[in-house]
Amino acid sequence: YKENITLDTLAGISYMNKFSLAHAFKEEYGVSPINYLVQRRVAESRYLLGRTNYRIYEIASMLGFSSSSYFTQTFTRIEGISPRDYRRQMQDVRKNQS
Hints:
By secondary structure, this protein is mostly helical. Helices cover about 75% and strands about 0% of the residues.
């Protein structure tokens, strides 16, 4: 999920055409391959935001987002909270657990 993965790349690896691959993937996982990739990237970003001191633009770059603004938009759309606010909440939780 950290690499720039496209449907063409996946189709080539699996020796399937793009349509068949996308259909089979959605049947199995309930989402398109690209949406699955985005969800995996956001899941990993939650960990990095909560457990590391990497800057947001560094996390975006490490996880394959084309820009930090696209990462922020995507994270906010999926999580309902900005990456910065998520990090603050996780820091507060960790402080309260200490």
